[in-house]
TrEMBL record:
The keyword Hydrolase applies. The keyword Amino-acid biosynthesis does not apply. Keywords: Hydrolase. This is Hydrolase. InterPro entries: C-N_Hydrolase, C-N_Hydrolase_sf, UPF0012_CS. Residues 1-240 form the CN hydrolase domain. It comes from Streptomyces spinoverrucosus.
């Protein structure tokens, strides 16, 4: 399986529409990949709080239309990162969109854990409450999470319980906590014996330098590929069958006790 993580730079000198069209071009350049991934809130920037409301769009808005066409034109599975979603009957959401190679929307994941404590995303956006997976036929089952979700291991165990084998994590992670980014990506891979594909933004927006360093980790915690700090496309080939093999060779998940329903005796 070939995956391409597009670590796009989010800089204030570029308009949302200019960046959207540039993202389309970057996706189109990934012909031959099985899966292409964009980062979290790449249209606005994850820390550009004042833009959330101004640039929010319905699920089937401008980004949806551009990404659906890019997926079908390229013939790839496309995790289009996340957008500030405007729900006409509710709050804003940080929502990830996944498209099939035919350009069909197959999943939308509303971020469950909102960052900011008492400001920013935590107060401007609503929280999702659904575990979302996507089955890529004959390859792997994706489990969806976003940025701050990475700090909550129970979410990933929940995704494993509903079949996830490869976690896809778009993010807008700050450079000052980059060591946590790498550490947590490896931890989620090891403890769940799953692949982790974590795609971050580059550049600086709202005065916050971004970490970059998108990363792909295998079920043993080995880093298969890691980007640098600047904009780039990180492409890696891996065998999704390694998940089942790892879980068979080292069946730690079978020894779970807490949080697992046991049959009554």
């Amino acid at each position: 399986m070939r995956a391409s993580l597009i670590q796009i730079a989010v800089d204030e000198g570029e308009s949302v529409e200019e960046r959207r069209q540039r993202a389309v071009s970057l996706v189109l350049a990934q012909a031959g990949a099985d899966l292409v991934v964009l980062p979290e809130l790449w249209t606005t920037g994850a820390f550009a709080y004042e833009q959330f409301g101004r640039e929010a769009e319905p699920i089937e808005g401008a980004t949806y239309e551009a990404m659906a066409k890019a997926a079908s034109d390229t013939g790839v599975w496309l995790h289009a990162g996340s957008i500030p979603e405007r729900d006409p009957e509710g709050p804003l959401y940080n929502t990830s969109l996944v498209f099939s190679p035919a350009g069909d929307l197959v999943a939308a994941y509303r971020k469950i854990h909102r960052f900011g404590f008492d400001k920013g995303e935590a107060v401007l956006m609503g929280a999702g409450d659904d575990l979302v997976t996507v089955r890529m036929p004959s390859t792997t089952t994706l489990g969806l999470a976003t940025c701050y979700d990475l700090r909550f291991p129970e979410l990933f165990r929940g995704l494993v319980d509903v079949g996830a084998e490869t976690f896809v994590i778009p993010a807008g992670w700050p450079e000052r906590r980059r060591s946590h980014w790498t550490l947590l990506a490896q931890a989620r891979a090891v403890e769940n014996q799953a692949f982790v594909l974590a795609c971050a933004t580059a550049g600086t927006h709202a005065g916050v330098p971004q970490a970059g360093h998108s990363i792909v980790v295998d079920p043993w915690g080995e880093v298969l590929a890691e980007a640098g700090a600047d904009e780039e496309v990180l492409t890696v080939e891996f065998d999704p069958g390694k998940v089942a093999a790892t879980r068979e060779q080292f069946p730690a998940l079978k020894d779970r006790v807490l949080g697992v329903e046991r049959p009554r005796r």
